[in-house]
Amino acid sequence: MLTSPVSGPVPDRPLHIGDVADLTGLSLRSIRHYEDLGLVTPRGRTNGGFRIYGAEAVERLRLVMDLKIIGLPLERIRPIVDACLALENGEGTVHDVATVDECRSDVTTAMAEIEQRLSAAKHLGQRLGQATARARV
Could you tell me the residue ranges of all domains in the chain? Predict the structure, then answer.
């Protein structure tokens, strides 16, 4: 089950992979997998070879997780993350605007699907509650 990324401030200092895991709720394995896919890149490595990340990596991973939660496949996520962050930094292009607008449409669709599932779950919960109430009488 996917969970919402951990929110909150990100320290303005070099972060080890464990710090990034704590700040995002991701496993070390997932962070390494996302690195292999090019979704996040460490700033560098320590003398001992450990990955060092910055706050931007945490923000990227939080956005990746949000996009995964609404059901987007990983191959679609990277261009959306790149475009969104470029626009937020004032460096976006017309193509980035189009990419983010398309994603907004996907988000709207996902919200409608979630609302439909929530409505069905509420109805089912009421029905099951009524059924057990009748059984107790």
Answer: 13-56, 70-137
Residue whose token pair is 């939080």: 62
CA distance 120 to 99: 32
Q: Does the pLDDT at position 5 exceed 70? A: no
Fold of 13-56: Multidrug-efflux Transporter Regulator; Chain: A; Domain 2 (1.10.1660)
Please answer whether residues 58 and 20 qualify as being in contact, where contact means their C-beta atoms are separated by less than 8 angstroms: yes
Closest CA to 78 of 56, 99, 108: 99
pLDDT in tens, 56-71: 999 999 999 999 999 8
Model pTM score: 0.79
Identify the pLDDT of residue 7: 77
